[in-house]
Amino acid sequence: KREGRRSRDAMTLMTKVRCVGHAGRALAPSLASSRTTASSARRTNVRYGNKSARTTTTRTTRTTTSSTSTSASGGGGLVASCPELEAIVKAEVVSCADESKTVTLGELWSQKDGERHVLVFLSHFGDLTSWEYAQKLRDNMDELVEKGGGGVSVIGLGSASNGRKFAELLDFPLANLYADSNGLLYKELGFAEGFLPDANVSPYVKLLGMLTGFGSPGTIQEVIRGYVGDRDSKQIFDSSLFNILGEGYQRPMELATLRLSNMIALGPLAPKGAPKSGVLPNWSELVSDEKLICQQGGTLAFSGAKLIHIQRDQGILKYADIDVLLEALDKEYQDVVEGLE
Fold first, then answer.
1. How does strand 177-180 pair with strand 151-157?
2. How far apart are the C-alpha atoms of 314 and 193, rounded to whole Å?
């Protein structure tokens, strides 16, 4: 009897072991899947964590670099180690008011004394982008100078004589205007070079590509905005037929009308404030080097040797937002006032 009981107990134990084994094999895939998922999740977290860390580090490093000063000659004494200022302080341009006068950009303001200064780099003097941006700069010049607490210097691509014609047609202050005849500084500052910058084809072929959006992001959308209007933008003409559509915003066709006036001029049909002559009738006097017609510009603001604002133009008609520039200057001005208090 005892042997029989031991035999039955042994068989029962073996049955239980086999059941446990079957259950283990059934659960194995699920457990393996769980381990794989957990491992994948850990790898994912690490990967995105590193990416975020790199981005944050880059931003921190960039900010620190922009505000760090080191001793250097020229440009008012101290210059920042940021690459933009290092390129600017040694660059030379020609005064459009006096063609015989070559100016080193670093001498336009004192980096050592913390003087604020705005540097606007237009595209070429015959570009509709330059015309439109210059009109906004002209109309806001007093506020720019006031909030900037210093000066505003505008550099365009071309010769000094191109710049004088540009200033004449747009009633732009000549004393603020300088000419860069080769565009090398623009490349050093990392400004967009347009469509197929290294291709050995006509600049006009490249320009045509940019007008259709290639190498010029946002241009098509900007053209459409000129036709349909923009409730978030200011009106352009103070007194015109556009007032029928209301006031206090950019009305449909209003910006498109300004651009057409800038291009060919509308004569007696032009709204008040539009130029009397346009780009195309004066092309030969506005453009001296066709190789520069695709190069884009940008806007920088400095407080002494510290870069406090930069906007790089992305393409045709996509110039820097002047309201964003004024906001940056106003913030810097308020910080200075609070520091004095």
1. parallel
2. 9
pLDDT at 198 exceeding the cut of 60:
yes
**C-beta separation of 119 from 301 below 8 A:** yes
Strands of 142-288, DSSP E:
151-157, 177-180
pLDDT band at 81 (very low <50, low <70, confident <90, very high): low
- Work out the burial of residue 75: count CB atoms within 10 Å of its CB; fewer than 13 is exposed, 13-18 middle, 19 or more buried: buried
Highest mean pLDDT of the ranges 1-10, 59-68, 96-105: 96-105
207 and 213 in contact (C-beta within 8 Å)? Answer: no
Task: Encode 117-146: b = buried (16+ Cβ within 10 Å), e = exposed.
Answer: bbbbbbbbbbbbbbbbbbbbbeebeeebbe
Query: For the chain, how many helices (H) and strands (E)?
Result: 11, 9
| Residue 316 confidence class, pLDDT cut points 50, 70, 90 | very high
Give the Cα separation of 195 and 261 in Å (integer).
26
The first and second tokens of residue 271, run together, are 């709204």
Are the beta carbons of 74 and 106 closer than 8 angstroms? yes
Query: How many angstroms separate the CA atoms of 196 and 194, rounded?
Result: 7
Instruction: Indicate the pTM of the whole model.
Output: 0.75
Query: 52: exposed, middle or buried (C-beta count within 10 Å: 0-12, 13-18, 19+)?
Result: exposed
Residue type, 295: Q
